[in-house]
Design goal:
The protein is mainly alpha-helical. It is 74% helix and 1% strand. It has two domains: 161 residues, no CATH class; 204 residues, no CATH class. It has a two-stranded antiparallel sheet. It starts with a helix and ends with a helix.
């Protein structure tokens, strides 16, 4: 066993075990699965954003495109579903996370999730009266309430699960249907959660002048700023690549940790665009994959098809081409392979840093729009680059980086080509 094999075994037995433990931890699993509940609403909200703010230049003042732009910006027909999707994204996140965690805890997920949702609404969306009557304000149900909602979902489910398993219950006759019994079983957890979190919210408001949602947002803001820095996003993408190098699904490993941040930043950027300003967060939505790793994966495949003469590598490249176009990279990663490939890891790291840094700086400087539209993950990345930013320059930058990546990979692919020839010759000689 060589030193690289020993290192792989050590990492699989240490990092891999830790990663697996974290991935299966009930709260992390619930966070990962629960955020998936928001996906239909972010996708629908993204489509509505495209309709509200089409990429029509300011110089176009007449004709269909100008009329569409004017209609979209003022249409209540579009603004209403926007407000009920991205405008209250935390609402759906709380339900999804509470539902998923409740299943992990072995309690009735629907009842428990409704308790969490009700408690969150009382804290973040208490009805207010205006000249039009009573209404629920959406100001803290959007991205601003995301992290408070996550913590509240965890807390309410834990309280509910404890009471269901250990608390006193109303004894009902055996003839009472189970669904009726469940109503009374979950009545006390509802009341307890309401009392605890309302009291906590009132105490925070009395002490600080603002409630729990604002407190959590103020506490989490430094973390959001830190994760949205250039150094942090480079490290995040390098972690993804590092996990892939050792055969661990890199994107899945970091998703639980930064997924809520990406979703919150996406909703915040969308809210900024809807308000007529610009988003502030680069680490939003699918930016990390569209402009970071996906360019690299596409480039290495094309470099293999152009510069490799080894039949095995070319066959693998051809088989991986269609899945890779639609951002399914596993055939390339495990077929080429990129796993434990010392020859190709160097350009992979170089291009990942280059793509991440260049796209980050172009967005941070305002040259490119920041991501504010949720897109379908399996759309080709150049299309996603445009749709997610509604900026025609985004796919241009994507293709420029792609071309540079191909050139960077060229000498390394040629070197790996010779290595593959030697491996194939050795394999034939051993038959």
């Amino acid at each position: 066993m060589n030193q690289l094999d020993k290192l792989r075994d050590v990492l699989e037995n240490s990092v891999g075990r830790i990663a697996s433990t974290l991935s299966n931890e009930p709260h992390m699993k619930a966070l990962r699965e629960g955020m998936m509940f928001t996906l239909p609403f972010t996708l629908l909200g993204g489509i509505i954003m495209i309709m509200m703010f089409p990429p029509v230049p300011a110089t176009v003042t007449t004709g269909f495109l100008a009329a569409w732009k004017a209609w979209g910006a003022s249409s209540m027909l579009l603004r209403t579903p926007y407000n009920l999707t991205l405008g209250m994204i935390s609402f759906y996140a709380v339900f999804g996370i509470a539902y998923s965690l409740s299943k992990e805890k072995g309690i009735k997920a629907s009842y428990s999730a409704i308790i969490s949702l009700f408690t969150f609404l009382v804290i973040a969306g208490a009805p207010v009266k205006s000249e039009l009557g009573w209404g629920i304000p959406l100001g803290q149900l959007d991205a601003q309430g995301m992290f408070a909602g996550i913590l509240l979902a965890f807390g309410t489910v834990e309280i509910t699960a404890w009471y269901i398993k250990h608390g006193p219950k109303i004894k009902m006759p055996a003839s009472v249907p189970p669904n009726i019994v469940a109503v009374f079983d979950y009545l006390f957890p509802l009341a307890i959660n309401l009392i605890i979190f309302v009291a906590l919210n009132e105490a925070v408001t009395a002490a600080l002048g603002f409630g729990l949602v604002s407190l959590v947002q103020n506490l989490i803001s430094p973390l959001l700023s830190f994760t949205d820095s250039l150094g942090s996003v480079v490290v995040i993408n390098l972690l993804v690549i590092g996990f892939w190098f050792f055969g661990i699904h890199g994107a899945a490993m970091v998703a639980s940790l930064i997924g809520p941040i990406q979703s919150a930043n996406l909703a915040a950027n969308a809210a900024a665009v809807e308000a007529g300003t610009v988003g502030t967060a680069v680490l939003a939505g699918s930016w990390k994959s569209i402009f970071g790793t996906q360019i690299m994966f596409e480039a290495i495949l094309i470099a293999v098809l152009i510069f490799s003469k080894n039949e095995r590598l070319r066959s693998l490249g051809k088989l991986s081409l269609v899945p890779n176009i639609f951002n399914i990279n596993e055939p390339l990663i495990f077929g080429l392979p990129l796993v434990m490939n010392v020859t190709l890891i160097i350009p992979v790291l170089i291009t990942t840093v280059l793509n991440t840094a260049v796209s980050y700086l172009l967005m941070a400087s305002g040259f490119l729009n920041k991501v504010y539209v949720a897109t379908v993950a399996t759309l080709p990345s150049p299309i996603n680059a445009f749709l997610s930013t509604m900026d025609w320059k985004a796919p241009v930058v994507w293709f420029v980086l792609f071309a540079v990546n191909v050139l960077i990979f060229a000498p390394f692919v040629k070197a790996y080509d010779k290595q593959a020839d030697a491996e194939d010759a050795e394999a034939l000689g051993n038959e």
